[in-house]
Known about the structure:
This protein has one domain (2-212): 2-Layer Sandwich (Nucleotidyltransferase, domain 5), CATH 3.30.420. It has 213 residues and is α/β, with parallel strands linked by helices. It is globular and about 55 Å long. The mean pLDDT is 89. Helix 3 crosses helix 4. The protein has seven helices and six strands. It has helices spanning 30-46, 61-73, 94-112, 128-139, 161-175, 181-186, 198-212; strands at residues 2-9, 19-27, 77-84, 116-122, 147-153, 190-197. Strands 5-4-1-2-3-6 form a six-stranded mixed beta sheet, with helices on both faces.
Amino acid sequence: MLTIFTDESGTLPDLKDKFIVICGVGIKKIKEAKNIISRILASLRRRKIKIKEIKFYYAGQNTKRQFLSGIISANFEIFALVVDKKKRKIADTPENFSILVAELVNEINLWYKVEKIDLVIDRHFHRKIDQDKFNRSLKTKISKTLKYQIKHIDSQQNVLVNIADMVAGATLWKYSGKDLQFYNLIKENIMVEKIVNWPEIKRKSLRQNKKLT
């Protein structure tokens, strides 16, 4: 069983965000991964760092380096989708967000070629009605050969989701021109780094929908 933890950095509607990055981290041995993250968090606590959850934009420079170095030494496999918004203000709807996740998951599926995955998403939508809309929309866009289970999880409830947040933040900082050092820490573990633009994947999704109707 392969578990994919996903999270995004950047936003669809904010015009200040030129890019939005969504990352997936493939993990086959969940127990082993939890032990690795627990050791990283314990090391951070020994440095008197108060930790409720690790978020890229709230973590200090040293925390970022230590956490990213730790997950890379564990050889977690990273997949990144970088979306150039083309200066658009894009509605943050279940349909639009599902376009991003589906594009990433289909790329991951091409890499692993597995029959089934657990897809764990850092809870983007808090209302169940929006989560259900997202799930239905995603189902129409993911490869029909892939069986999957989907969970929307608060990252405070599952520390492994924080891995996806950290690598997404590091990747976004590369493309926003803010800082390369954190991306350089993880780049050897990035299996796929796909760059697309929003109009392109939106048109692709519309074409797929027409075929289904």
